[in-house]
Amino acid sequence: MKGGSLILNKRAEYEDDLKQSGLKNTKSRKAIIDILIQSDQPITAEQIYLKLKESKTEINLSTVYRTLETLDNKGLVTKLSIMDDDRMFFEYNKMGHRHYLVCINCKKIVTIHGCPLTSYEEELEKETDFHIVGHKLYLYGYCSDCKKK
Amino acid sequence: MKGGSLILNKRAEYEDDLKQSGLKNTKSRKAIIDILIQSDQPITAEQIYLKLKESKTEINLSTVYRTLETLDNKGLVTKLSIMDDDRMFFEYNKMGHRHYLVCINCKKIVTIHGCPLTSYEEELEKETDFHIVGHKLYLYGYCSDCKKK
DNA sequence: CTACATGCAAACCGTTTGCACCCTA
DNA sequence: TAGGGTGCAAACGGTTTGCATGTAG
């Protein structure tokens, strides 16, 4: 399956997701989810806003924030604080469980598929008596370009 | 070794740390580091400010922020975004490498000692050609009290 | 038609900064 | 006593909110 048809496929899916979450299927929401799906890494509200502007779909920044918050509440989107500053990043959940490797120097974010923590979570549930429902893992370092310098 | 003497011990250590980082050994800095060391979990600048106030050591909030930033830059403190909102948490690094288990309901933060990721980091370095220098892992779930409800 | 969505501008709030004064080394 | 540290108040910037208007179902 090629990239293009994967995205078409995803679009059909998320119109369903919106419906099932009781959300109206508006132009803004579709445009914002499109951007999230096409992005290979988590992005900020402002980045989404700018990408929309580029593609001649001007949507107010507050609408972007409100949409992301709504989708987060419905579980369709996750809000992340990858850089440990006050900029929040967002990712579309349908893309599967992912972790990130962040270059400290150039801020590049590389997506890691596959998760080393499944059995660890089980162990920890026994130890702590928590019911664990998820985790976030960020790894930091220098990418191949930056480590040369 | 009892808790009290551990803390006394740590204090001697961190007066050294300050000196070695070229930082002046001021009342504010000592008070702030004391709070960090005594806390069994990462805390916010405002929590530090309030604890200081309680113990009759009023230190301006900007000074708290400035001190934390200075200590972060010197590598004595780490800044974390555990809750994925715009409140930053801080921890004292001398306490060793730690991970956190956060209760989604009551916001309790449990410290986890021991790290399941050492060999994983090595694998990943080969795969990605990054030089990995650290990671952050947060696990989320419901604590034993909250999962009953 | 009506409840939810959006645009706009103002408010919010955690954090940072400029400047005058203070204190450690 | 010089240069870093602190208090105070104002600025900053990402995010949220109130309100009037628009639109999907």
UniProtKB/TrEMBL annotation, chains A, B:
Keyword Ubl conjugation: no
Record's keyword terms, sorted: DNA-binding, Repressor, Transcription, Transcription regulation, Zinc
Domain of life of the native organism: Bacteria
Coiled-coil blocks: none
Entry-linked SUPFAM superfamilies: Winged helix' DNA-binding domain
Family according to the record: Belongs to the Fur family.
Pfam families (alphabetical): FUR
CDD domains cross-referenced by the UniProt entry: Fur_like
Protein name, as recorded: Fur family ferric uptake transcriptional regulator
InterPro entries according to UniProt: FUR, Fur_C, WH-like_DNA-bd_sf, WH_DNA-bd_sf
